[in-house]
Amino acid sequence: MHHLFTLTELSSAEITELLDEAERFAKGDHWQATEPLFVANLFFEPSTRTKCSFEMAERKLGLHVIPFDADMSSMQKGETLYDTVRTLEAIGVNAVVVRHSQDAYFETLRHVIRIPIINAGDGCGHHPTQSLLDLLTIRQEFGTLEGLTVAIIGDIRHSRVARSNAEVLARFGARVLFSSPEEWKDAANPYGTYVDIDTAVAEADVVMLLRIQHERHEEKMGLTKEQYHARYGLTLERGEKMKKNSIILHPAPVNRGVEIASELVESKRSRIFKQMENGVYVRMAVLKRAIEGGIANGSYFKKWKIV
Amino acid sequence: MHHLFTLTELSSAEITELLDEAERFAKGDHWQATEPLFVANLFFEPSTRTKCSFEMAERKLGLHVIPFDADMSSMQKGETLYDTVRTLEAIGVNAVVVRHSQDAYFETLRHVIRIPIINAGDGCGHHPTQSLLDLLTIRQEFGTLEGLTVAIIGDIRHSRVARSNAEVLARFGARVLFSSPEEWKDAANPYGTYVDIDTAVAEADVVMLLRIQHERHEEKMGLTKEQYHARYGLTLERGEKMKKNSIILHPAPVNRGVEIASELVESKRSRIFKQMENGVYVRMAVLKRAIEGGIANGSYFKKWKIV
Amino acid sequence: MHHLFTLTELSSAEITELLDEAERFAKGDHWQATEPLFVANLFFEPSTRTKCSFEMAERKLGLHVIPFDADMSSMQKGETLYDTVRTLEAIGVNAVVVRHSQDAYFETLRHVIRIPIINAGDGCGHHPTQSLLDLLTIRQEFGTLEGLTVAIIGDIRHSRVARSNAEVLARFGARVLFSSPEEWKDAANPYGTYVDIDTAVAEADVVMLLRIQHERHEEKMGLTKEQYHARYGLTLERGEKMKKNSIILHPAPVNRGVEIASELVESKRSRIFKQMENGVYVRMAVLKRAIEGGIANGSYFKKWKIV
């Protein structure tokens, strides 16, 4: 069974194979399942990029998508996530993609659900397909992750992107710098070294900005957007101090003029929209892996025989 | 025209044919329409099982599904259900599936809409495809309905499942027992005999539990969940007093620990998830019948010629 | 690039070609794209007819539809419409259909988005596909627009239907009459002559009623529905004074008994449901034009190369 909960659970070889597969899709490879397969996308938090690129990836693989609207589901009547996923399994859904506000929501599903589950973001936990698309974008640019300096800048503590990326970047030989307001440092994430933003920007091959998640916390440390931008954001001035071939990443949605100057979002250095395109390819790779692993174990058949 | 509003309107032969058809689908039969057909699912109340299994059934039959979101439809501007369905008919939708909170909502549509309408639940009225999947699950287990004792337990009065099932079970020769708190007995449903829950559980071949519909009434008769469970629920103790080959059904979503002990939901006797799987097959049968009946009368053409 | 923002921007020849194309679809012509194409419908205001008929048109053309739910999109996190459309472009969506409450929302997209955008209604601005379906319905009835008298009746000032239709009707040689309560006259729309409703109804070949948009303004000029109907609505009495071959149009949803007597909605003169059917054909024509124009310029490829 090929769930995908966190990248930490994958070996480096497995991650590399996913990136290679995604690269093949980026270059135009086709792959479709040999029988009709059904997938459902369970998004309990807002999303444009992740949701739409999973939808795109699913259609490119020839999968049937069963619509699921959390606000109109039986979870409104108190049904649990576990019973919801078991239900979808029972009616013949072959894989589910889940985004949920609860950290590690998947622990209640891991050993009991018999169809692959793909984590599309769990609270402040992990966001493995985002990490994969970041890795792919960096690898396309530099050919390798080894020896690169990647600066992750912003709200480190609440970011599932920071958490997912730092471990795997370090594992693949990149040097990780963190830059963050004091309040948003994350003592539980040991994979980076904190530096001030000017140092981070000046030394990085990859400047990876994080979104201020207004929906997760009220605090903005008493700063206006302009003040935050000046102190902790990638301003136009800081942008000019970036290294010659360095690039800008951001998981988006972007708060233009807050964590990054609006003009830099679509600048020559930015790979922000390329990240989105790559998101489709890594999700195709992850879905293909899930389907191939899931069908092999024959779990779909006689699934109602509870003994 | 083959609408499906209530099972009461169908002859026993028609019901048997639907169950036989569903059984064929369960065994792997394929059927697809010979021309492109479009269906819309109009759900005005939350649903996971019914909505998703209709979506699954439609795709298995090769139908195109036109998404409809009640909260973003023109019913927000005051458009009636009748005008909404007439609109869908006008733009070429070939059949609609409707769940609505109003009892017998379909009476305003019955003689005027020229495409088949399938009732996916009307208020506290009927839920014919739920009944069909219950019947199918019982028949798969016992080969027949005749001579069986079926205990329907819980909120009889507000349950469209109880209403839909009792009449048809009695018609097919089953003995129906009801067990319910005094407040939730239903004087208008003459098809069962009220007994206490211990008798019901001990005598039944099929223990059919109903969900407490928290969304339809506030009253819980001053009981905590634990008290309700002890007095009126299928506890582990009661579960052990069930007859040797008897089974447990529940339309779900299940309030675990209220109408049924959580451990029993996925126990050896439970057919709760098998019911969900069967839901896909009966909905395929109902849709096939609707399409075959609907196309035969040629109602789709010149539908705008109102004279 | 073949966007469609307003009919005013199209030449008369282009409009005629769209109507001719729609008529061919009405008569059963088929056309499908030769490669897999993806479209997203971004509706930020409620809609049944326009949304569902775009969905229908897209499927008839063999397009893949990527679902987009504004309430569950990243616009909930503050993302702009521009960044949302850019995102969809980046992940490979080939065209977008947009309805938005802001007048001329498309001006922020016009010169920067590299996939075709089809306006499905902008605030009190324009609604070009509604105009096209009105024109098609009139042309089917009378063979031409030239020389006809078209009365547009109701809330002229807030109506994107009135704005879109009046200019193009005048351009094609129709005489446009407006009839409206004083408060809802539109000094900015020079294409019609104001007359009282009885004159409008008596002289018109086409009586085009507008919906009172309760959601856009509270004012109903202190009138009850019955009073409004008597003074400004198409009552049964006024309906009898219509010219021999004249027809009734309404963009719907209809407030039955307010702008039109309920009995007239499905009367012999009404083409209201035929308009809806025609809506599918004109949207097929508009989508076909967008796809053909969009693919020709090769904008989909290397779209992330921002230099």
Automatic annotation (TrEMBL), chains A, B, C:
Pfam families per UniProt: OTCace (PF00185), OTCace_N (PF02729)
One example of a Gene Ontology biological process annotation: amino acid metabolic process
NCBIfam families: asp_carb_tr, PRK00856.1
GO molecular function ontology, one term from the record: aspartate carbamoyltransferase activity
InterPro entries for this protein: Asp/Orn_carbamoyltranf_P-bd, Asp/Orn_carbamoylTrfase, Asp/Orn_carbamoylTrfase_sf, Asp_carbamoyltransf, Asp_carbamoyltransf_Asp/Orn-bd
Catalytic activity: carbamoyl phosphate + L-aspartate = N-carbamoyl-L-aspartate + phosphate + H(+)
Encoding gene (name): pyrB
Protein family: Belongs to the aspartate/ornithine carbamoyltransferase superfamily. ATCase family.
Domain annotation Aspartate/ornithine carbamoyltransferase carbamoyl-P binding: ranges: 3-140
Residues the entry annotates as binding L-aspartate: K77, R160, R211
Binding residues for carbamoyl phosphate: R49, T50, R99, H127, Q130, A252, P253
Domain Aspartate/ornithine carbamoyltransferase Asp/Orn-binding: start-end pairs: 146-288
Pathway annotation: Pyrimidine metabolism; UMP biosynthesis via de novo pathway; (S)-dihydroorotate from bicarbonate: step 2/3
Stretches that traverse the bilayer: none
Main function: Catalyzes the condensation of carbamoyl phosphate and aspartate to form carbamoyl aspartate and inorganic phosphate, the committed step in the de novo pyrimidine nucleotide biosynthesis pathway.
Name the record gives this protein: Aspartate carbamoyltransferase
